[in-house]
Specification:
By secondary structure, chain A is an alpha+beta fold. Helix content of chain A is about 65%, strand content about 15%. Chain A is elongated, with a radius of gyration of 20 Å. Chain B is α+β, with helices and mostly antiparallel strands. Chain B is built from 3 helices and 8 strands, in the order E-E-H-H-E-E-E-E-E-E-H. In chain B, helix 1 packs across helix 2. The chains are: A alpha+beta, B alpha+beta.
Chain lengths: ~110, ~140
Amino acid sequence: MHSASDLLFKTLGDPTRRAIFEHLATGGERNVRALTEFAGVSQPAVSKHLAALKLAGLVRDRPEGRETHYSVEPKGLAPLIDWMEHYGAFWRDRFDRLETLLNRMDQ
Amino acid sequence: MTTADTATRTLVVERMMQHPPEKIWRALTQGPLLEEWLMKNDFQPVVGHRFNLRSDPMPQWDGVIDCEVLAIEPNKRLAYTWAALGLESVVTFTLTPEKGGTLLRMEQSGFRQGSENDRYYQGANYGWQKFLGNLEQVLAKLS
C-alpha cells in the first residue's frame, strides 16, 4: 500500500467529488459558480470538495479578481497510474517474506 | 515476474519457490504462518468464511482489508476477495509442482467498486470501474 495512492483513492471515493474532478478533466477550467451548477449541491459543499481535491494535489486554483478558477492538476493522478506498480511491489515484498519464512520452516 | 495489464486490470506475480506445494500451502492457509509473511488475520480455510487482514493504520486508511474465501483446493489453489478503500478485487494463489519446487502464482484481478458491506462504499451511482476505464481517455485529453 502506498500513502499517496491511499489519499487519492480516499479523496476520489466520494462520488460528487469524483464527478467534479472528471468534469474539470474533460471540460477544462471552471469557477466555483459553474461547478456548483454542475454538481447540484450547495456552493459551500462544492468549495469543501474543491479543498479536498486540492489537498490531494488533484486540482489547482487560479484567483482572478474576486473569482477563483479551478482546473485539473495532471500530475496529481500519478499515484493512480502507478497504483498497479505499487501493488506489484507490495506482492513482491510479501513473496520475499514468504520465501524467508519457508526457508525457516525447513529447520 | 510481475505484469500489470491495464486493459483487464489484472496483476500477476509469479515466483519459483524451492519448496514443495504442501509446505507453501501451510504458509498460505495457517493463520500464524500467514501473519508472518502477509498480515495479521483471522483466516480459516473454509469457503464462505469472512475474515480481515490487518496492517498498520495510516492517516488515510485504517489498514483493514475485508476478505471472503471463494475457493479452496488443498495444495493447488486458494482464492479470496480483497476489499479495501472502496475497491474490491479477487486474489488467487495457484501452486504448480515443478522440478525441485513449486511455481507460486498470485493473480489479483477484477478491481471494481466495493459492495454495500464495504465501509467506504458511499452509495455511488458513479462506479470506480467506469472511472478507471475512462482514466486513459481523460489523460489523453489533458496531455
